[in-house]
Amino acid sequence: MHIEHAAILGRGAVGLLYGTVIADTLGTDAVTYVMDDARYQRHLGERISINGKPLELETVPASKATPADLVIVATKAPGLEQALDTMETLVGPRTCIISLINGIRSEQRIAERFGWDHTVLAIAQGMDAVFLDGALTFSHTGEIRFGAAEETLPDVVPALDDFFTRAGVPHVVEQDIWHRLWTKLMLNAGINQTCMAYGCGYGAASRPGEENRCFVAAMREVLAVGRAEGIDLTERDLSEMASLIASLDPEGMPSMAQDRVARRRTEVEEFSGTICALAKKHGILVPQNTWLYQHIREIEESW
Ligand SMILES: NC(=O)C1=CN([C@@H]2O[C@H](COP(=O)(O)OP(=O)(O)OC[C@H]3O[C@@H](n4cnc5c(N)ncnc54)[C@H](OP(=O)(O)O)[C@@H]3O)[C@@H](O)[C@H]2O)C=CC1
Ligand SMILES: CC(C)(CO)C(=O)C(=O)O
């Protein structure tokens, strides 16, 4: 198995960032954006900039797409259902699939449609990407952490590792990918939801105060639920995530806070939605995530 070309679904912060990294290293032929025909028409003529330079990569409508070596899913979670339909034209018998959607559920949904054989488990972390009004800015590319699911075929992870290495995409092959996914879920339930609920950035969530208490309390509840699910999340993982956020630009904000600015449907179901449901199953009290869920839903409904 050899990957030469990637198709990216989701021409937003994450999709643009990694598409640009791949094209900068392997050339513009190595990557294409694909979207459903209606979305393609809606975005036609749009000017997109990446750190001030115009986007030079091709975008094709689903009706003109052909099977790719690799599909990178970089929509937000609410866009996945429609993206799965677009993927029908992109996924051939040997197409590898990686989802960079936050949370722990997107791969299962992908595998229900396309199977686990060529699907890996993954998250992207550590970037400071902001995409608003067609302009992407970032100074840290972050990294992709991925690993095999139980049923992923053995040659898929090495092929992806080889492609990302050639394409200059920072990445780590995880031996315990579920631990990584849950650590990221803990971070997102804390920082994304806090910054969305309070309309604040990384700085406010890291300084002593209500936002910081919310950030840490929400993470600690994920830690308890994760442990009940059999994931070995620790206080050390939590402290590392808090330090990571404290190291970012204080004015920067996570994707969910950008959703608040742009008034887009958020990924709250992936974060507190998932945690509250699992907490109920295990009889664990999660008042911070319950409050965040309700408050974020109220903000969304007020738009
Ligand atoms: N931003 C960040 O720094 C990070 C984000 N993540 C995660 O990565 C994922 C992507 O986030 P992000 O890039 O910020 O999101 P954005 O909102 O910036 O971009 C999402 C893009 O996906 C497009 N889209 C939605 N549905 C479809 C579809 N069916 N087919 C094709 N394109 C579609 C949207 O287009 P349209 O505008 O037309 O709806 C939009 O361009 C999320 O799960 C997020 O949590 C992970 C790490 C960091
Ligand atoms: C918090 C962050 C930036 C971590 O990389 C993220 O995952 C997001 O914005 O959704």
Structure description:
The protein is an alpha/beta fold and 303 residues long. It folds into 2 domains: 6-175, Rossmann fold (3-Layer(aba) Sandwich), CATH 3.40.50; 178-301, N-(1-d-carboxylethyl)-l-norvaline Dehydrogenase, domain 2, CATH 1.10.1040.10. It is 49% helix and 16% strand. The chain contains 12 helices and 12 strands. Strands 5-2-1-6-7 form a 5-stranded parallel beta sheet, sandwiched between helices. Strand 9 and strand 10 (135-137) form a beta hairpin. Helix 6 (177-198) crosses helix 12. The longest helix has 22 residues, at 177-198. The protein is globular and about 50 Å long. The relative contact order is 0.12. The structure holds NADPH dihydro-nicotinamide-adenine-dinucleotide phosphate and ketopantoate. Residues 9-15, 35-36, 39, 74-77, 79, 82-83, 86, 100-102, 124, 127, 129, 131, 255, 267 line the site of NADPH dihydro-nicotinamide-adenine-dinucleotide phosphate. Catalyzes the NADPH-dependent reduction of ketopantoate into pantoic acid. Residues 7-147 form the Ketopantoate reductase N-terminal domain. Its EC number is 1.1.1.169. InterPro entries: 6-PGluconate_DH-like_C_sf, 6PGD_dom2, ApbA, KPA_reductase, KPR-Related, KPR_N, NAD(P)-bd_dom_sf.
